[in-house]
Amino acid sequence: MIKSQIKSFITQDPDDRDFLVKNLRLFDVPVLNYVRNEDRHKEPFQISEEMRKLGISSRLDQVFDSPDAVKEVLTSQFALEHSETDQKADEVSKLGILDFWTPENHYRWSVSRYGGHVSAIVEPVARSRLLVCSTDTGEIERLRSKKKELEEIIDDLEENFKSLQIEQRLLEDEAAKLHKQREEIINTVQLEKRKRREMENRVSQRKRKLESMEKEDDLDTVMAKLIDQAANLTFNVSYKRTFAEKHMTSIEFDAKIRELEVGIKQQERFAMQASLHFENYQDFRRYHLGVGV
């Protein structure tokens, strides 16, 4: 509780208190609003001869300077006007002083309700650690600079992400066109294969017919038929060459399509990594935006 009060911000206006509570919520810092109590009067502090002999020279609220509001809050919370301070602690409780501070320790005495026995508690005084404003200012400036740097990185990532999305769409469109061309080539090849089989069947039929004619017709008739068959064979050879060229074109398209598919998968993995990186930076940005405020 003492640490909580010492780390608190003290305001003298309810609106200021509400503003600090709203904006310091992330830092878990208490905010107290001080209202002056006009009826509160401090008891005058007088040092007796016995106190002076023991080294008591002042009351605890008299050994430090602070704004009135801060001192009033500390006094009201911890009864500093009822605590004495100096270097000696021996025999202090005999003077009726039950709360005593030295630079090293905090002495507290309590009297038993039943037997009147006096027991003492000694707590070491922690070394004072003050919050330096310049340190806070430097930290705030560092966080602001880091925030600006992160915002610039996020902007670059957003631009890169958009470029990757555009490039991915272009690759997908090109891949779709290549797939369509591939289907057309496959259909053409299948049609050519079917025509080739039909032509081979015709050639086979004509060959058999020629063999039959060799047995029945004269030489001139056979030669005329052979010339006709040779012309058909020439046409078939030309057709076969055309088919082979188209088949090679189909193979080249297949290789190009596979290459594009590999490129698309690489772009998809890169886009996924960029999207994950972008989401992490967005979380980091939201966190530091909250800290910067």
UniProtKB/TrEMBL annotation:
Coiled coil: 140-216
UniProt KW keywords: Coiled coil
PANTHER family: STRUCTURAL MAINTENANCE OF CHROMOSOMES PROTEIN 5
Protein name listed in UniProt: Structural maintenance of chromosomes protein 5
Biological source species: Vitis vinifera
Gene: SMC5_5
